[in-house]
Model the fold of this input.
Amino acid sequence: ELKEREGKIFQLKARSSQREYDLFCKIRDEVGSYATSIRKAARGVAGIDALCGLAELAATNNYCAPKIIDSLKNPSTIEIKDCRHPVVEQLLVEKEFQPNDITLDEGLDLIILTGPNASGKSCYLRQAGLIQLLAQVGSWVPANNANISIVDQIFTRVGAVDDLASGQSTFMVEMAETAFILNQATEKSLVLLDEIGRGTATYDGL
Done:
């Protein structure tokens, strides 16, 4: 009697699972017929969500609207007053982020930044790239005033990594990345190089 009851239970479980799968397939097919509309709605909601996130960030963190300069008619320009790193300033608890200026234009298109360890050089470079990116996606930026030209590409050479499995030391990885940038960048590109050839002789670094 127990064996017979067990057989019925297993049979019912199998029928239940099959019924559940049949219903799932039916719902899947029905939803699939609306796939184009669902994707369109999802893209719309995602766009609104992204814009609302940027708007809230700008409103709560004292961002300014950047003035976008036509880089085809004018020399490439980045003039940002009292700018901050949008991520680092959120992490500081006991003190406020120290704002600084960034200026690159026709008369000054290269900055060589030097200083001791932990003095903020990498932070300064990163914030330049982040502000450029924020401006080009249509966001306000963490600064008091900003005049920014559109760039065609943003290149970075940041951080120390190696690829020893393929025979690439840290130095060689840096050289390969730098060579790629030199081959791809144009006069309308923003290039951020955070140390090249560290730990080598001066001649090798140059």
